[in-house]
Amino acid sequence: MLPGQSAEGWVSDDLPNYVDIVGASSELDGETLTAVFHLRGIPKRLEFNRKGVPDNRIEYMWVVAINTDGDPNLTLNQFDYWLQASYAATRFTENSRGIMRDVNAAVRGGVLKYNPNSDEQTLMMDPLEQNVDLVISHQDNTLTLVSLIPGITPNSTITFSAHDDLLGRDFVQCVPG
Q1: Could you tell me if 107 and 86 are in contact, meaning their C-beta atoms sit under 8 angstroms apart?
Q2: Is the N or the C terminus of the chain less surrounded, counting Cβ atoms within 10 Å?
Q3: What is the 3-class SS of the chain, one letter each residue?
Q4: What is the pLDDT of residues 21-50, one digit of tens each?
Q5: CB–CB of 51/68 below 8 Å?
Q6: What is the pLDDT confidence band of residue 76, given thresholds at 50, 70 and 90?
């Protein structure tokens, strides 16, 4: 979709409510993108560092992939930035137990830039020193990310996706036009 557009997603019975994207919306003010994930639900607490998630692997992630040139066919190696909220697992030992934590305290926002040294097997991203406002509304079931995205325009393309390393992923995409 284009910045400023909205899209609806399908409700899934197979995904956790915090991964199931039922809609997505965005606004663009200059180079500041506001991206809103409308989810089926967001619990106040989730289990983090779960058994089966390797140390330092992204356990939970909500991503807006951004192609500043406006390519409508975003693929793994055709975006410039990721505006994301995520949590990387911290496993002290292989048998460490997961812990219940407040989602607002555990998940962090960030902007990553695609590294052109990536190849088809290895995706490399470089973190940018950008402020990211992350607002999670349990009442509205929304996760909102706001940040400056260098080079983004009203003609850029964005795609929303959500990921739980153990339980699945969802995405919302619509062709601009």
Answers
A1: yes
A2: C
A3: CCCCCEEECCCCCCCCCCCCEEEEEEEEECCEEEEEEEECCCCCEEEECCCCCCCCCEEEEEEEEEECCCCCCCCCCCCCEEEEEEEECCCCCCCCCCEEEEHHHHCEEEEEEECCCCCCCCCCEEECCCCEEEEEECCCCEEEEEEECCCCCCCCEEEEEEEECCCEEEEECCCCC
A4: 999 999 999 999 999 999 999 999 999 999
A5: no
A6: low
What's the pLDDT tens digit per position in 49-75?
999 998 899 999 999 999 999 877 666
Question: For residue 24, which of 8, 2, 12 has the smallest C-alpha distance?
Answer: 8
Could you tell me the two tokens for 152? 């983004």
Distance linking the first and last C-alpha atoms of the chain: 8
142 contacts 128 by C-beta, under 8 angstroms: no
- Is the Cα torsion angle 105, 107, 112, 116 positive or negative in sign? positive
